[in-house]
Amino acid sequence: MDSRDEQRGGTAATAGRPLDRRAELSEFLRSRRARLKPEDVGLAAFGRHRRVPGLRREELAQLAGVSVAYYTRLEQGNGRNVSAEVLDSIARALRLTDAEHAHLNHLAKPKAHKKKPAVRQQQVRRALRLLLDTMDGVPAYIVGRYTDILVWNRMAAAVFGDWGELPPGERNWARLVFLRPEYRDLFVDWEQKAIDIVCALRMDAGCYPDDARLSALVGELSVKSEEFRRLWATHDVKEKSHGVKHLHHPLVGDLALNFESFRMTDGSDQSLVTYHAEPDSPSADSLRLLASWGTDATRAATR
Fold first, then answer.
1. How many angstroms separate the CA atoms of 40 and 35, rounded?
2. 3-state SS of the chain: helix, strand, coil percent to 5?
3. Nearest Cα residue to 75 out of 84, 87, 63, 88
4. In this predicted model, what pLDDT tens digit does every residue of 84-134 receive, in sequence order?
5. pLDDT tens, residue by residue, 269-289
6. The model's pTM
7. Roughly how many angstroms between the first and final C-alpha of the chain, as a whole number?
8. How many angstroms separate the Cα of 275 from the Cα of each of 8, 14, 138, 165, 303?
């Protein structure tokens, strides 16, 4: 991979090195500043030809109430000694969402994390495993860090494919969405699903920039997927806790499923994700059909 690939996706992680937190902070602030125009924030746009897209540093500093030199140091990746109040002011000036604001705080003032074993397996509590098994007719799974799919129930396998047939390292949404063609066919709006995955990985990167496994995953996807490189370079972050997913299942055809994501509060970085159809809808009928097939649903469709 040449230097242009590294510039597009920040893929210095291809060798498994930790992500550069200073570079992440710098690129995130520049990307957020570039998306704003003076008129968006009530400033006069002097001159028809601006050398930079979006706001100038001077304009952003003015809006945030800090000196240009101070903001420049921060945008160059030097978040040391920056106060929470200043970060709040910059977040307001940049019109950051709550998720973006949290990401900025993680990048500028990272919390100290105890070093964990490099290959520590993510564990799911037994009670949660039992809960999934009782959710008959409701596709559900638990996703952890790196977008790893940790456990799932019978209905999730019927809808999304039997992940039990994959090696543990391949049970990962990012790898499935970007590297497996069948998932491009499954999600009607594949681009939006891909964006959601990248945003989740960006949030992880902000919280754990020194995580070698995350860096290796980003590097692998950057090498293997041009679409991943493009989306990773946007530095977008967001959390999506509910919505509707439109699928095209190989056995029952189109499905419109409401999803809800519930983040665990025990510090495990895990979320329970469930799907359900509107009552008496064609999608509800299709889910009942898939329930009768169980994990054989995807196999039956490929015969």
1. 10
2. 55, 10, 35
3. 87
4. 898 999 999 899 988 899 888 888 877 655 444 444 678 899 999 999 999
5. 999 999 999 999 999 999 999
6. 0.80
7. 39
8. 35, 35, 6, 22, 26
